[in-house]
Amino acid sequence: MQLRTFGRTAMQLSALGFGCGAVGGIMVRGDPADQEQTIARAIAAGVNYFDTAVQYGDGESERNLGRILQRLKPPDVVVGTKVRLQANEFGRIADAVTRSLEGSLARLNLDRVDIFHLHNAITETEGGSALSVSQVLGDVVPAFERLRQQGKIRFLGITAVGDTAALHQVIDARAFDSAQVVYNMLNPSAGEELPINYPAQDYGRLFDHTKAADVGVVGIRVLAGGALSGSAERHPIASPPPAPIGSAISYDADLERAGRLMPLVNEGFAASLTEAATRFALSHPAMGTILVGMATPQQFEDAFAAVQKGPLPKAALDLTSALQRTFSGEPR
User: Fold this and answer.
1) For 129-160, what is each residue's pLDDT tens digit?
2) Which structural domains are found in the chain, ordered by start?
3) Following DSSP, what letter does each residue of 77-129 receive, concatenated?
4) Assessment of whether the complete model's pTM goes beyond 0.85
5) How far is CA 98 from its chain centroid?
């Protein structure tokens, strides 16, 4: 497994991380034996980053990951979890952040987590469950820093969703060590200019900002919630189709556009659209580790095999760009 330097943290993370989210579902609704088998296999294959959150099954993902790591006792894994603040907690952010982390540590059977990510969307002004830039930098960062000083977290992170300008401001402030960034074949705008009238959120070459700030990048929504499998079929323990992040307004639109990327498979650049999407995400040099959700042990094997093939060749990336240009002008 290739290891990549993760920003300024000096950590070397596996190119493939283990996503413990609810979309694939293995760590939330999976059979305990399958959970342990898949994590043990991932560790043996060289995966060293495991990503979870309170929201994944209301703590179930953290409990299951904690149980298995306690049993396996791998020596050098990196664990990240997240806090999502509710709107009624915005007046007491420090207390809410601390309480959330304490619950996560208990479920994970850990004294500290390596990366603690803010899970809320970030916008220029507060609204709904989103936090403003000033709240993030003025309230969240000090709360995270206190927890770091107490030895309960090593590195500070954000989930980079929300308003593009706000995300740029927060990353440029250099307060965070990690950013979870949407980057996939339906929305490559974190890494490159979008074609005119492209139907997706423009993240404004966010990777330029992470690079300048030396922030490590965790690639999320690599498969667009499953749409980039090219199939509407979902495993029984997977979640229903999730709302898209950064791409089309509807999952069905994502799925339809994904189908139009099949020439990558037909011309022999990948054995499946899922493989092509996985390798596409790894192709950008800013990427530290990517998260691929899974429902079965075999889906881990498929992701691992794709990563072992390495980034897509230039000819495949050029074809991808040409196919993406056909989306321009369509409604989002």
Assistant:
1) 999 999 999 999 999 999 999 999 999 999 99
2) 3-325 (3.20.20.100)
3) -EEEEEE---GGGGGGHHHHHHHHHHHHHHHHT-S-EEEEEE-S-EESS-BTT
4) yes
5) 23
